Structure formats: C-alpha cells, structure tokens
Amino acid sequence: MAERMKQAVILAAGEGQRLRPFTALKPKVMIRVAHKPILQYVVEALARNGIFDITIIVGYRKEQVMDFFGAGEQFGVRINYLRQEQQLGTAHALKQAKELAEESFLVLSGDNIIEPDTITQIVGAKTNAILIKDQEDVSKYGVVEVRGGRVTDIVEKPKEAGSHLVNTGIYAFTREIFRFIEQEVDLPAVLKDMITQGYDIIAPKAQGTWLDAVFPWDILRLNDIALQRMTPSLGGTIEKGVTIKGLVSVGRGTIIRANSYIVGPVIIGESCEIGPSVCVLPSTSIGDNVVISPFTQIKNSVINNNVGIGASSIIEDSVIDQGSIFKGHFTALSGEAEVEIEGEYHKPVCGAMIGEYCHIEDSVVTYPGVILGNHCRVKAMKQLQGKIPEGSLVM
Fold this sequence. Notes:
Layout: E1 7-12, E2 32-33, E3 36-37, H1 38-48, E4 53-58, H2 62-69, E5 78-83, H3 90-95, E6 104-109, E7 112-114, H4 120-123, E8 129-134, E9 142-147, E10 150-156, E11 165-174, H5 177-181, H6 187-196, E12 210-212, H7 218-227, E13 233-234, E14 237-238, E15 243-245, E16 248-250, E17 255-256, E18 261-263, E19 266-268, E20 273-274, E21 279-280, E22 284-286, E23 291-292, E24 297-299, E25 302-303, E26 308-309, E27 314-316, E28 319-320, E29 325-326, E30 331-332, E31 335-336, E32 339-341, E33 344-346, E34 349-350, E35 353-354, E36 359-360, E37 365-366, E38 371-372, E39 377-378, E40 383-384, E41 387-388, E42 393-394
Parallel strand pairs: 1-4, 1-6, 4-5, 13-16, 14-17, 15-18, 16-19, 17-20, 18-21, 19-22, 20-23, 21-24, 22-25, 23-26, 24-27, 25-28, 26-29, 27-30, 28-35, 29-36, 30-37, 35-38, 36-39, 37-40, 38-41, 39-42
Antiparallel strand pairs: 2-3, 6-11, 7-12, 8-11, 9-10, 31-34, 32-33
C-alpha cells in the first residue's frame, strides 16, 4: 500500500429510516448538526488530511448531496459522484467505485461526524485496515475482535458484548478488495471472508471524534459535542442590552435585538431575526433565515433553516426541521418518553422531534418524545403525544 493515500470513497447512498421524520425528505448525510450537514464534517476532515480526490456514492435523494457539494471547489477538494441505484449494502456501494479507485484508498461512511485527527491513524496504513473505536453501548454496531493488532472477527449488533471495540465504517483498502466483493453486499462480510483466507487486516484505534446518529434524539447529542468545538464569531447586528456569554457564533445579516440573552455554545446562522427579549441557552443551533419572536426561550435544541417561532414559546431538547412555522405560546415539554421505532421501544429524555414544513397554530403543547411528521398542520390549543404521521391535520 502506498505511503499515504490521496483518494477517498464516501458511502452516502443510504436513507436512515430510524431517523424519520428527518430522513423522509433528505438523506441521513444531509441532516444538519451545528449548522452543517453531517457529510460536510467528513469532507472537511479528508481535506485537512491532504486527501483532495473524493468519490461520493449517492443514491437516496442524491440531488440534495450533489447540489450542496457540487464539484467540491468551496471545500478545496475534487468530487466525483457515482450512483448506487439500489441500496443493497456497503460492499455493493463500494463496488460502484471499482473503475475510479486508485491502488490504495480510504472508504468512509458519510453519515458519521468525524474530525481531522479521527482518521490520522489510518491515512498512512500500510495494509488493509479497519478503524475501531471504544464504545460503551455496542448493541447498534459491529463489534470488532482484535488479537495482536489484527482483526480476528466482526460480530454485527451482538446481544452480548465480547468486546467494546466497534467498527467505525472507516477503512483503508487496496484494489484487491474488489476481488472479494463480487458476491457480498456488506463490507463486514467481505472482511470476514478475507480473514478466513489468511489476509491481515489491522485495527488502528480512532483517537478523535466519531459520532453516529441512529435515532432522532441522537441529533441533540451530536449537536452538543460539535458546538463545543466551534470557533466563535460575531457577525450581523447586535443591539444594545444584549448579553452574550461563552462560545457564540452569529452569522452575517442576523439581528439580535435588545434584551436578548444568549449563553453558548450556540450558533445562529445568517439573516435571522432574534428577539427582542429572547433567551437562547446552551447547546442550541439556529439555521439561516430563522425568526424567533419576543419572550421565547430555547435550550439544547436544533432549529433548522427558514423556521418561524412565535412569541412566548418554550422549546427544550427538541429538533425542528426546516420551513416549519409556529404561532405564539408553543411549548415543547421535555422529559423521559417511551418511543417505538421499528418495533423497538426506547426511553430517551427529549422534547419534540418535528419534521419539515409543519404549521403549528397558537398555544400548542407537545409532550416529551413527540415525533411529528413532515407537512403536518396542528390547530390551536392542541396537546400532542406519540407519533403523528406525515401530512396529518390535527384538529
């Protein structure tokens, strides 16, 4: 394998069904965390490691990825796109890159937040490698068994953990990998086949950030961690009487009106109108073109682009997707909830998970764990619980 790789293949074709409603209208890689799509963190990490030749495998709602990243110039890289028409698995996705792949290359999942130092250990790998990471809860991942620095087995989503080392979905390969892909659709199965045939696969351990969102409320955890690593910057107009503490970033064209109180880490995008007398508390991301009306309080939440929030609202531990409009006195209650996703029951502590382009009238209250689908309309004075399907009218 070459001394240092110059090419990467990013797998970004999947949907992420367990993250609905946030993936019903966009791929998982385009979910925004700390005001950036998850995939942007991967592209930037590669560029910082001197990898500028990037092939992205797209599939589900591919136009959104291609429109946002283009040919890669704004990120200082060169991007090619290949399509995986059917999302059959990670090995099948990589197979699409067979004709473009160099002698050695990195393979990464586009739906995990990473930092530049996350992949430093694997960029210079001298042989086939899989990047591993210590993880307390391994039930959602592939567990990697390692002996003497070599991978001996990979067990997908084990009920009992024989190891706390998980597969990050970041690999270093030579072109030899394509010989093993022919019949397999998932990369862990390909690697197990290679191990059986006597090939060495080393297992460097990731030292930097590696974050994965599996369920809607996971977005809040990722957002909190990503915000703590941002560089503060105050743009726009900040009126007299505004209090700003901690790590806070405010975009161009944004107005923070008098008597507002902002405690970081907080990021506020461009062309927003905040206040007067609005309180934005830690671990909150606010997108572009957002209006937050007076006497509203927001804490530990993700508010995406083009959202309007009426006066005297209280929003905590919630994710609100783009284009949703809330009249006054909206309250998203937070607490432990029981939420069913794909037949499994979970008990997260969270507020409301609200999809794109919803319209919420006055004095609506959502109970902890509400999942409101895209394009819903909710009449005034309603109290929402549980999961509400896309396109619903709540009267």
